[in-house]
Protein 1
Amino acid sequence: MSSYTAPESAAKQLADIIAKLDPPIRKLARSCRAVLRKRLPTAIELAYDNFHALAIGYSPTEQMSDCILSLVIHPKDVSLSFFYGATLPDPQGILEGSGDQNRFVRLEDASALLRPDVEALVQAAIARSQAPLPSSGGGYTVIKAVSVGQHSRSVLA
């Protein structure tokens, strides 16, 4: 795997990776990413691509350990993932997953990110973040890892 791409070219590289997705997932990924960039304008996007999923973490720093949440794009679905989701309050019971830490919400469309129950999870994740999001400035994109020999997402199951 290669790692780290300068922020100025990383946004284009991420756009190129997303362009390889099947059209419905590509559209969903782009629209969800746009909502998250608007919601978290000072966050740094940390992109990790492998054969199973493309994960775009939103973090106050370039360290994955500081990631607040991630947009996880699989060949057939997109979800909003919370690395420490098991500890988040979830009175509506919308979080899926049974691991020790991670929980996620499947996204049928980008408007799901604007639902009050999802927004409450985002707010709780931001409040629990070890490092605060910058109060000003603009976020940028960093490619942390891209699989070598990547193949089309449409052929992955």
Note: The longest helix spans residues 23-39.
Protein 2
Amino acid sequence: MGIKFPWASNSVARVIEHTDAKTFDAFVREAVSDKVSLLATDEHTSYTNLWKDYNHDFVRHSAGQYVNGAVHTQTIDGFWSLLKRGIMGSFHKVSRKYLPLYVAEFEFRYNNRNNPDIFGAAIARC
């Protein structure tokens, strides 16, 4: 059994077909607790309805803003960076058909990055 570190943030990642507000809203509501103290995103217009149910704030990357007090997207940007480097450096090409499996693998790796028994955690799921 793996060790869970309370200070390590977890990511939930999925491949989505559309980047419209309805799709983003459904994904966020599925993945994020309504008890979260702050939901930080970038300025993508599909996030605009989240303020209704979340303490939502955002950074404006288009204006060169990457941090605004406690609001930043560095954690999720780091996750996507690891996924992209993994694909470019190890796998080289990923088909649309198998992309969800690669995303799930890197989600697991990221969420277990501080687990000293990551191998044990991986085979426990078999």
Note: The chain has two domains: 16-72, 73-118.
Protein 3
Amino acid sequence: MDVKVTIRFDEVVVNKAKRYAEKNNISLSRLIEFLLQKTTSGNYSSLENLPISDWVSQVSEGEAVYQTKKKSRKATKSEYFSSKK
């Protein structure tokens, strides 16, 4: 049985969450329900006990990209400014 709950979030967070839910073909309500279920179903007495990898996976918008090669400062600067175009 569904229960209606009124909660408040920062507008920026809500907009990001709506886009994420839409990309994943799920309603915002079901996304929040899923995250709450995952968070509360474990043996976690607080958010500090929730493994960081689980938490990041639940709220991230995509896979993390790790760079293993060091880039020169010039290359990093060039990459940064080209991404802003």
Note: The chain has four helices and no strands.
